[in-house]
Specification:
This protein has about 70 residues and is of the alpha+beta class. It has a single domain, classed as 2-Layer Sandwich (HIT family, subunit A). About 35% of the residues lie in helices and about 20% in strands. The chain has a two-stranded antiparallel sheet with strand order 1-2. A hairpin with a 7-residue loop joins strand 1 and strand 2. Helix 1 crosses helix 2.
Length: about 70
């Protein structure tokens, strides 16, 4: 988690990063790392965001982010 969170911070440059660590009904490690930005729909609120889905990310942007994260965790 630490390796991935450092890569997210380095590549995506969020204002902050929320760590959600769970393991409710079945004993296991279940995590969400949620980059937060100043223009979040509700920046001071916890995850999950409002009910409306965010707009789709362009395929080129998604692929570029994935490549950058792979290099950052290399």
């Amino acid at each position: 988690m630490l390796l991935v969170s450092r890569a997210l911070l380095q590549v995506l440059r969020p204002v902050k990063l929320n760590y959600d660590v769970l393991g409710n009904s079945v004993p296991h490690l279940h995590t969400h790392l949620v980059p937060r930005y100043a223009d979040d729909p509700r920046p001071g609120w916890p995850f999950p965001f409002p009910e409306a889905d965010p707009p789709a990310m362009h395929e080129d942007r998604l692929r570029a982010d994935v490549e950058s994260l792979r290099r950052a965790t290399g």
